[in-house]
Request: fold
Amino acid sequence: MATLSFRQIKSLAVRQGFPRDKAETLAAIALAESGGNPRAVYKTDREYSVGLYQINLKAHPYITAAEAYNPVTATQWAYQISGGGRDFTPWTAYTSGAYKRFLGRSVVQPPPEPTVESVGDLTGLPDLPIPPGRKLIDSSDSGLIKSVILITAIMLLIYAFALIRG
Reply:
């Protein structure tokens, strides 16, 4: 399933009963939690969060994974969990304030930088979950990237030298 935009998530939330202002907050939370990916997964020993809103199935065992992956039923559950949009504190993106950078995305803005949710997205192999918002390589990996570039350059020089010597 394709990634959903701020506008699509907000519209879905309004159709499921959220007031417009609360639907905006929910859409921003969804983008902060999953990047708008209804198939996003984050799993640790204490947490198994899935779907657009990263509903923690360990905290809400009455919700099935199929319901959390489906944007419509996930939004219905988000409505229940949030008390109709009155309390978003169950979402870390809300309590940390991470959702705020996504508010107002219904105005035309450049899309966020795409992220890969799992290695399976690249290879077609079974998914190996990557936490939402984490990239396979990010700025903290700059030392690794420089090392790979340096090794590649050295190998090219060795290869060129071998070709010249013939």
Remarks:
- The chain has a mean pLDDT of 82.
- DSSP finds seven helices and three strands in the chain.
- The longest strand covers residues 41-43.
- The domain at 6-123 is CATH 1.10.530.10 (Lysozyme).
